[in-house]
Specification:
By secondary structure, the protein is mainly α. It has a single domain, classed as Amino acid/polyamine transporter I (Up-down Bundle), CATH 1.20.1740. It is built from 15 helices and four strands. The strands form two sheets. It has a two-stranded antiparallel sheet with strand order 1-2. β1 (87-88) and β2 form a beta hairpin. It is globular, with a radius of gyration of 23 Å. Keywords: Amino-acid transport, Membrane, Transmembrane, Transmembrane helix, Transport.
């Protein structure tokens, strides 16, 4: 069903190196620990960090924090397995695998390759659609913030999402012409700075609210049945909160593609492990701060998002700036998640039609201020069509973020846990039924249960969203 174009090595290992290319004949990789860390932080710290107060309100202080740290450890642990699989059969001197599918093909083979491709690429496409919606919500929040500032907090302020979605799409059409993941570093650095900025603003505003003493009611067990929620709502919201936390770390979807940007010395797997540790550690600190301080500020009535749902109204200029940072971050994050899918489609087309000039020929042109740019007609047409498609879907289905929660639930287990653990067992030849084998398979089973529970919670949320669905209605 799915295959990946595997470029034959133009230069075999052990041959005389060719200037400007790596040992596999591809363009010289220049990625470092810092660029990989930026890619990870861009992928992991999303605007969802501002919804963690809501998650802790459903789970409680203690359980919420423990679950946050637990999934951070699990994600880092399985990411180290995946990093070791980039080359096969040896993690340092083996043959490169350019994508997640290539890694699964090298170590597991069979129908698992197609399962991996389906889980990965459906998730990547879903994320880009979801980011289009989320970016427009943040931009709408800027307009509403200014309206509330001028007319008062009780004013009926309505701002259309669709012009912002269209503008976001136009920006993505331009950025999508960046040829490959290797050239995204500058965008990821900007996006990472933006994510730190709005997360820090959210934390700062929550601290100020706590200091003012005007805080919401908190409980050791989180939301109270019969007061804040019904018993069934408590259960489904807990499932949803656990799923939100689990998926908030799921960067393994694009880990191999990030690792393929790294220079070969020091060994890619060692650099990737360090970058994963830095990214997950940094993320966890921000998650705990946003979750705990946000819950302390808002209590059991914590909003789904500090900024776009107006947990804060003042200072309005700071709210505007934070929402602008979210939109800028999502511009970069869209590309981080979109590029692997772009390359998957393009490499398959190159394999199928190797003689086509439309698909394969690159044209160079000098653009003022930007220097020399490479243009490929197929890339120009196909990526433009893709961005238009994701933008239109976002406009038609404004509840798509609820669908994205379900996609996250379905892809978390295979991509973050099952495949990395299975490949680690195959690579290191862990003895069947040994204590280590049993422990690893227990981890797989526990995470499968979490994914199933989160999927149920997502389906309940999706049903509610569909019931309230009004085509081409403003989201806010």
């Amino acid at each position: 069903m799915m295959d990946t174009y595997h470029n034959p090595s133009a230069v075999e290992l052990g041959d005389t190196p060719v200037k400007g290319v790596d040992e596999d004949g591809r363009e010289k990789r220049t990625g470092t620990f810092f660029t990989a860390s930026a890619h990870i932080i861009t992928a992991v710290i999303g605007s969802g960090v501002l919804s963690l107060a809501w998650a802790l309100a459903q789970l409680s202080w203690v359980a919420g924090t423990i679950i946050l740290v637990t999934f951070a450890v699990i994600t880092y642990y399985t990411s180290t397995f995946l990093a070791d699989c980039y080359r096969s059969p040896d993690p340092i001197t083996g043959t490169r695998n350019y994508s997640y599918m290539d890694v699964v093909r090298a170590y597991l083979g069979g129908k698992k390759v197609q399962l991996c491709g389906l889980a990965q690429y459906v998730n990547l496409v879903g994320v880009t659609i979801g980011y289009t919606i989320t970016a427009s919500i943040s931009l709408v929040a800027i307009g509403k913030s200014n309206c509330y500032h001028d007319k008062g907090k009780s004013a009926k302020c309505s701002v259309s999402n669709y012009p912002f979605m269209a503008a976001f799409g136009v920006v993505q059409i331009i950025l999508s012409q960046i040829p490959n993941f290797h050239e995204l570093s500058f965008l990821s650095f900007i996006a990472a700075v933006m994510s730190f900025s709005y997360a820090s603003i959210g934390i700062g505003l929550a601290i100020a609210k706590v200091a003012s003493g005007k805080v919401g009611k908190t409980e050791l067990t989180g939301t109270v049945i019969g007061v804040d929620v019904t018993s069934s709502e408590k259960v489904w919201r807990m499932f949803q909160a656990i799923g939100d936390i689990a998926f908030s770390y799921a960067f393994t979807t694009i880990l191999i593609e990030i690792q393929d940007t790294l220079r070969s010395s020091p060994p890619e797997n060692k650099v990737m492990k360090r970058a994963s540790l830095a990214g997950v550690s940094t993320t966890t600190v921000f998650y705990i701060l946003c979750g705990c301080i946000g819950y302390a500020a808002f209590g059991n009535a914590a909003p789904g998002d500090f900024l776009t749902e107006f947990g804060f109204y003042d200072p309005y200029w700071l709210i505007d700036f934070a929402n602008a940072c979210i939109a800028l971050h999502l511009i970069g994050a869209y590309q981080v998640y979109g590029q692997p899918f772009f390359q998957f489609v393009e490499s398959n087309c190159k394999k199928k039609w190797p003689q086509s000039n439309f698909i394969n020929k690159e044209y160079s042109s000098n653009i003022p201020l930007f220097g020399k740019c490479r243009v490929n007609l197929f890339r120009l047409v196909w990526r433009t069509c893709y961005v238009v498609m994701t933008t239109v879907v976002a406009m038609i289905f404004p509840f798509f973020n609820a669908i994205l929660g379900l996609l996250g639930a379905l892809s978390f287990w295979p991509l973050t846990v099952y495949f990395p653990v299975s490949m680690h067992i195959a690579q290191t030849k862990v003895k069947k039924y040994s204590p280590r084998w049993l422990a690893l398979n227990l981890l797989v089973v526990v995470c499968l249960i979490v994914s199933c529970l989160a999927a149920v919670g997502s389906i309940i949320g999706l049903i509610r969203s569909v019931k309230a669905y009004k085509p081409f209605n403003n989201l806010n």
